[in-house]
Amino acid sequence: MMAIIINLDVVMAKRKISLGELAKRIDITQAKLSILKTGKAKAIRFSTLEAICRDLDCQPGDIMEFTR
User: Which structural domain range is residue 58 located in?
Assistant: First the structure.
């Protein structure tokens, strides 16, 4: 079981932004963003995390959560 939970979909819903729109804004493919959003990604580049946080005006902890 993965100890890192991705809450990107929650933040996106609060901001009323679609997967396609966010992908376009941060210059990443929808497929890659979808893998991240669904928690199936094994890693994330800091540059991608920074772009997401900048665009959604949030902190990394808003979209990622550690569980035991």
Answer: 4-63
| DSSP string for the chain | --SEEE-HHHHHHHHT--HHHHHHHHT--HHHHHHHHTT--S---HHHHHHHHHHHT--HHHHEEE--
Angle of helix 46-56 relative to helix 8-15, nearest 10 degrees, comes to 30
- The reported pTM is 0.90
Question: What is the pLDDT tens value at each position of the chain, 68 positions in all?
Answer: 568 999 999 999 999 999 999 999 999 999 999 999 998 999 999 999 999 999 999 999 999 999 98
Task: Please report whether residue 9 resides in a domain.
Answer: yes
